[in-house]
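To: structure subgroup
Subject: Chain for Friday's discussion

All,

I'm putting the inputs and outputs inline so they're searchable in the archive.
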Amino acid sequence: MAERRGGGGCCPPMDLMRSEPMQLVQLIIPAESAHLTIDYLGELGLVQFKDLNAEKSPFQRTYATQIRRCGEMARKLRFFRDQISRAGLSLPTGSVLEAVLNLDDLEIKLGELEAELVEINANSEKLQRSYNELVEYKLVLQKAGGFFQSAQRSAEAQQREYASSQSAEESLETPLLADQETVTDPSKQVKLGSISGLVPREKSMAFERIIFRATRGNVFLRQAVVEELVTDPLSGEKVEKNVFVVFFSGERAKNKILKICEAFGANRYPFNEDLSKQAQAITEVSGRLLELKTTIDAGLVHRGNLLQSIGEQFEQWNLLVRREKSIYHTLNMLSFDVTKKCLVAEGWSPIFATKQIQDALQRATYDSNSQVGAIFRVLHTREAPPTYFRTNKVTSAFQEIVDAYGVAKYQEANPGVFTIVTFPFLFAVMFGDWGHGICLLVTTLFLIIRERKYSSEKLGDIMEMTFGGRYVILLMSLFSIYTGLIYNEFFSLPFELFGRSAYACRDASCSEATTVGLIKARDTYPFGVDPAWHGTRSELPFLNSLKMKMSILIGVAQMNLGIILSFCNALFFRNSINVWCQFVPEMIFLNGLFGYLSILIIIKWWTGSQADLYHVMIYMFLGPTDDLGENQLFPGQKTTQIVLVLLALISVPWMLIPKPFLLKLEHDRHHGHSYAPLQDTEESLLVETNQDSHGHGEFEFSEIFVHQLIHTIEFVLGAVSNTASYLRLWALSLAHSELSSVFYEKVLLLAWGFNNVIILIVGIIVFIFATVGVLLVMETLSAFLHALRLHWVEFQNKFYEGDGYKFHPFSFALLNDEED
């Protein structure tokens, strides 16, 4: 394996520690077995093909026609899925096709089904439109008929009243008037026309005003409100409408009214003024409505059965089309040889997959009855290979956390291995409460138990993110329980879980430790913080000191781990310059200052000294020869500090100056060599991956020097700022503890003190919502983001370049994750 050859003995052989050794392979495939070969390699999912036709447009490639066919079939399948979802049907999962169809048969079948479904939809749409028009026509007949009936009754009443008044009041003028009426010219009598229909209610007032203005008031318009919603025949939407009848005189007025109706989207229907014919029309319309309803229902049943049969095989068809489309996309990346009988493919694959790829090639040759087998060979290249880590459902989430910062360079040390432990641990340092940890654990176990169900469902963005990181949250909750036991906090309450407290009241009458004080009466509490500290005056200063020093120790340890990993990288890539001019001075500078501070913290804890470490560290630089006095922790401390300061000062130019000049000498020594012995694949990839951009072509000394100057300044300043950045562990831990204490004392205990059941219930509800909303959601997110920053900035920048690119193999297993 490449990691053993590359000097990887400094690190244990782990799948995640180094990316898989890769090789560039060339496949020469006979044209008759090319499709089946790519199919089998897609099932294997361990080859990332290179595009050998990058200069060609998609339309100029060999299999463009097949891809268009697959695209057309995918369009038909999307149409089917849309129709199935509109019909309220669900697509069954895990369906199996009765007989496996090839692409040609599937194309014919999909075309027939689409034509049938389109025809059914068109007929159904026409019938539904006719049905909606008849419903509106019936409403017009009913409402407008009411106008005429009321008008007829009113006219008959007026006529009877007029006849009675005429018989009672006869005068000399009456015969004259009667004669005048009888001589009226019938040709001058005006016949009124009418237009009836329905208009949207929101437009009815404007409709009436426009008609009145356009005809100068020479119309008579009546409207009636339709109580229920009416389905519009054109749009198919349910809207509120009014029935209208417009009486007019003259052809010009009629044309104006017709244009206004068209502009307002009013649907017009014929109307007979004869009451007997109106009743007959209503009867006829009602009969036609019943017939149409029966026909529409039968059509819907037939359409539902058709969609149901499509849905039973939809997933299998969809998978087949997507597989074929991906196969032809891959075939388009291959190039034909000069004889047009073979296709040539190039791609990256892990070395461990060589045997599997060769088996797949042989199987494809046999199954396709090809006379010539495919040729597999390894190419030598100076191109940087992709990065591939074999992960599982537990480690993949941690690897994604690292990859979000940057994909690892080929075979450099992967921080994902350590992130599996350090990330949940740093989170737990800030979230130390075993009560809250149990709540997180229960939530995560629920997600893990229902893992199979949720993995096959479409989840929301937040739920999908939480479910994807369920194993990260699981470890975070377990570590939180552990640190919570160390802090001895259960929703801010201490418990004597591991024995009795080492402290007791000063005398027998003592009841309040906060006022009287404590004395040590028993052995030290065996695990974590003694519960007697809780509630005392010295609790906050004690925990502040403990957590602040603990944060520095954790930070210095993790930064040292990062520098050690840079040493592992230098050994692995055989880069002695980075060992002596980067690793050694960085270790001296960091540990000469903050490593020494960590040792002082441990000595102070061990000896119980009262030395002021602030004073020691400040005057280590300002007055290195001054007498330490009561701040001396061990013999020879002054001499040790002087030596450490000198070493730290020497390490800065050590980091800055030698490396650029040594790189210049190395470049000059190898410059002009035209030939070199060939290396095997692993050796060539390993050495080439370590070469910087200045190793080829022009060597810019000024660029290298400026780059090293930036690195030196960044490391020197970062050693101070990064150590201070780890104090966020102390700050967030303190904030979490204090918030938990405030919610308990100011909400729960305060509600308990009222001796009222209602207030107590309200207090419990407020406490639960505050705990869940603030401590279990906001504080979890805050601690997660701070732990993420500590890994990305303070830890990974010590060794991690992250300028590689991911291994994206051609795999059918990834089709479900891709969008159409």
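Points worth raising on Friday:
The mean pLDDT is 86.
The first helix runs from residue 2 to 5.

D.
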